[in-house]
Amino acid sequence: MIHPISCVFHYEVSYMLNAYSKDKEVVTLLNLSREEIEQLKGSMYYCPVCNQPVRIKNGKVKLPHFSHYNNSDCSIYSEGETIEHLALKEVFAKWCEKESIPYELEKYLPALNQRPDLLIGNIALEIQCSSLSTQRLVERTQRYQKHGFIPIWICGKKLFSNHLVLSELVKNLCYFSDSLGFYLWTADWEMKELTLHFHIEEDWKKRVYSSTKVWSFYDGFLSEIFKFPNKSKIYIKRKFKIGELVQGYYIELNRKLYRRDEKIRIVQTELYNNRFHLLQLPNWFYYPGLHIFCCRGSDLLLKVRVWRWVQFFDQNVFEQSELIQVLKTELEKSIALLYELPNIPFETIQAYCLNQLLMYLIDCKHLIRVKTGWKIEAGSSDQKIDDVKEWLKRIENKCLITATPFKNVIR
């Protein structure tokens, strides 16, 4: 007997604030009253991208907007927009108008086949309020960059609802500046605030630590606000108790290994292939209990590759420039272990990772400054669990100070 299958089709209706009239003139609903919008309903309007008919929606719940019909196959407006997205587009458009900043709302760029929410000179402002694949994010960002635009991604409230952990998408929306480190733009349409989260760091559990600077909507010059990350003179210090972090990290690794956690088994397999055990690693692997921000998954996979190099060149002395170049090459080989981070040049990611790795190697005395450069000290590879526990006792009261601007260990 064949049972009928009930199929439910879900259509994501896409919204826009601009459309073309039949005479190809741009008609915008921005700044119009609902009464004025009602008077526009009798005419025909068309999508500026696909030229398909669109209709005006002027209900009482959502902001007035143009909408494709459900059978639309428009390549640009196929992603559904939320009330939050529409509201934030209106906010930034009005912010530009308040300051007499020339802008174009939902400007379609045919050479890119993309439409930023706002185009402000060469700044492509994108407000991201819903899920987006990493591949799509990278493609869109790189197209902007290739054609001379500067993409500024602003994360909506729903996407950034959990401030304690960054999703993969939100992490890939981050930027980096020498003065503020990793930073992220977010906007809260209900609180009416634009926020810059900066000096972003993660511990071993990928719990997020950050500082913030908040601007109320329309308070301050928008053009200056977007320049803030590169012009700021703010100096931030953050104190971590290394003993607590590393102790918690080690206990968690032990627990996950015992429970056969799938992700930890992958890490353990890689370590085993290099004749290591997850709980008997040189101390440097666990230190300082902070996660290297650029690393996808566990940063132990990156550390083991660097450690192979440390073991191979044990007791060798490298000149500073030679040391940096060799480790840069190791990082280039390990690019698959890093997040895409399309808003940050790879050279910047590379420099950050290099600085963190060198700082940890120096702190754990595997890199020692000598007259002719830096000496490699791998030490004993016969680490026992009791040795790790003894080391944990020795560092239980030690602290780590992190800061922006980031300390450059080797100049």
Share in β-strands: 15-25%
Radius of gyration using CA atoms only: 26 Å
Structural class: alpha+beta
The major sheet is characterized as: 9 strands, mixed
Poorly predicted regions: 1-14
Number of strands: 20
Provide mean pLDDT, rounded: 88
Helix content: 25-40%
Taking the alpha carbons of the first and last residues, their distance comes to 76 Å
Cα shape: elongated
Q: What's the number of helices?
A: 11
List the helices and strands and how they pair.
Blueprint (H helix, E strand, L loop, with lengths): L14 E2 L1 E4 L4 E3 L5 H7 L4 E2 L6 E5 L7 E4 L14 H16 L5 E2 L12 E3 L2 E6 L5 H13 L3 E6 L12 H5 L2 E3 L3 E8 L4 E11 L4 E9 L5 H10 L4 E6 H17 L3 H12 L16 E2 L8 H13 L4 E2 L1 H14 L12 H18 L3 E4 L2 E4 L8 H10 L4 E6 L7
Parallel strand pairs: 9-10, 10-12
Antiparallel strand pairs: 1-6, 2-3, 2-4, 4-5, 5-6, 7-8, 8-9, 11-12, 12-13, 13-14, 13-16, 15-20, 17-19, 18-19
Kindly summarize this structure in a few lines:
The protein has 411 residues and is α+β, with helices and mostly antiparallel strands. Helix content is 33%, strand content 22%. The protein is built from 11 helices and 20 strands.
Write structural notes for this entry.
The chain is α+β, with helices and mostly antiparallel strands and 411 residues long. The chain has helices at residues 34-40, 83-98, 134-146, 168-172, 222-231, 242-258, 262-273, 300-312, 320-333, 346-363, 385-394; strands spanning 15-16, 18-21, 26-28, 45-46, 53-57, 65-68, 104-105, 118-120, 123-128, 150-155, 175-177, 181-188, 193-203, 208-216, 236-241, 290-291, 317-318, 367-370, 373-376, 399-404. Strand 2 and strand 3 (26-28) form a beta hairpin. Helix 9 (320-333) packs across helix 10 (346-363). The longest helix has 18 residues, at 346-363.
